[in-house]
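Hey L., structure's done. Input below.
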Amino acid sequence: MASVNEVYFSLNITDLTFLGGNYTVTDFMVTPGEDSDLKVGQIKEFDDTGLFSFGVDRSSSASVATWFSERIASNQNTFNHEPDELNFAIMGNLILVIGNVNLPNGEDSFIFTNIALAQGSSFLSNNWWFGSKTAVWGETNLVTIVGSGLNSGKNATITFLRGGGYPVNEIVVTSVVFNPK
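Output:
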């Protein structure tokens, strides 16, 4: 049975509420020989805690890091460099449901395509990598990505933080700007 690897999204903005979402796997790479329950098309649902998990054994390899780097450039991930080794890497589509009084019906679902999640190891923990083919690195541990509103017709420019004193498996939304399509 594969190891459980938890990652979660959180929101650090006072006038917004994180309501949940999902992540749909579109492609992945696991260190050869390791057990995994990953499947293309698999949907990982999460509630307002933002927590979801992947069943993958953890053994790092350069081949997984190369796979990740071929899809996500250094300036498209929160660390702004290429990994040397990773346990596994996943590409997919992320939907975040965000509540705000300025949105129709008080909430909207924003989709972000080509989102990369990967797990490496650093000292005594398994740290997570986050990026996207459309992400723009801004400063230490931050990337900005535009998501499409599925209900409101608005786009949202969202800044994601991975690192910066937060737990190694937490990806924090630090800024949301709603824009018309």
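Residues 137 and 143 are 4 Å apart (CA to CA). The helical segments are 62-71.

-- N.
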